[in-house]
Amino acid sequence: MKLSKILNHINYSELIGSTEKIVGGIEFDSRLVKPGFVFVAQKGVLSDGHKFIDKAIQNGATVVVCENLPAETAENITYVKVDDSNEILGKLASVFYDLPSSKLKVVGVTGTNGKTSIATLLYKMFLRLGYKTGLLSTISYRINEKEETASHTTPNALKIQQLLAEMVNAGCEYCFMEVSSHAVHQKRIAGIEFAGSIFTNITHDHLDYHKTFAEYIKAKKAFFDSLSTHAFAITNIDDKNGLVMLQNTLAKKITFSTRSMADFRCKVIENHFDGMLLNLDGSETWTRFVGKFNASNLLAVYTTAIQLGQNKEEVLTIISDLQPVQGRFETIRSLDGKLAIVDYAHTPDALKNVLGAITEIRTRNEKVITVVGAGGDRDKTKRPEMAHEAALASDKVILTSDNPRTENPAQIIKDMEAGIDAKFRNKVLSIENRREAIKTAAMLAQPGDIILIAGKGHENYQEVNGVKHHFDDKEEIENCFGINN
User: Fold this and answer.
1) Could you say which of 266, 294, 319 is where a domain stops?
2) Are the beta carbons of 324 and 293 closer than 8 angstroms?
């Protein structure tokens, strides 16, 4: 594609050099640049791409897009000065890949909790409805049945456009994707034409990055503010910031709730460990999901499907047959009647929701034993809050390692211990080794007891000192239960 054609779609303040060059590719990593490529110099969180312009040119870049022009420009290189390289990368990639999002109905899901479940369930539903469909989630990127393990909740702008183009080439009509606050703030979703958006909730998380809760809300809201008049904006008004998301959006506004009046409503009629009976938009529907938070997720899925023109009865039939997403309230039963639940809950609110779901169903004749940790190199302020929530709703708590990354696991656990009230301290154990913590929970449990293993969910690794080792919570508890033996 000619550079002049690409530049017709973006705003730039200065241009040096020819626009008649043929663009062979786009890259923001100088190490991956090939001859004939455009190199986009981004100012990232950890490094500044402007420092690598010379390296990109050495590797064959013929066009450099940057916020600051170098003091000396190289001969035969075209320089394009822009205000925001992060935003421009997505727009350049979108044009280069022939505007793929304009040929798909792309729906983004944002919020602290529930993104993976909602996006994945929508993907599964639309496959069942007979559509070719794509998915961009925390767990994987999928194009129909083809799957690629995900590296981020929302990939970089270049990767997103590549994947959307692959979806178009594979005949997909829909793409459901998670949209993280990091992705919005870093303009990774620039260049995407969204058909709709869904807001789940916003609670304490990512303050290591956003610094304040107000900035975190602002990042989520920016996604809704960017929507066009042709899109729809679905929000959960059970969250106190649900209506905030709709304040400046041009999109069609739709609300859902499990507690109050809204455009779409859902009520839990019966709740068991093997599923729930819901009144969903006026129809009774049995589902294999557990807990009010999942009722809210399913309501979001239903609302979105209806907005996308699907038949109510077909949608309800599929909802009644959908399975929970991997690592989201995933249940494992031992031969002697112990119940283990593996869940990705890694924020105070998510942990509260999962324990709340257990409390709603339990008989009080059994113990709830919770194994939980907190990730290293992440928001430290949520650590004591998570421990507090665990102690509040459990009979026994085992604090352990999650992904310590480069931090000392013992220090992370100490940070968590600070959230334990004095009256709860006698029911809290601290076991740094996660495998031993899970084994201990299994040994302490009697038939009928419930073990919650929280924090890692679908993850099959543990990251220690920057190295990922194989570790799967579900495998570990199955070994303890003798299921894999």
Assistant:
1) 319
2) no
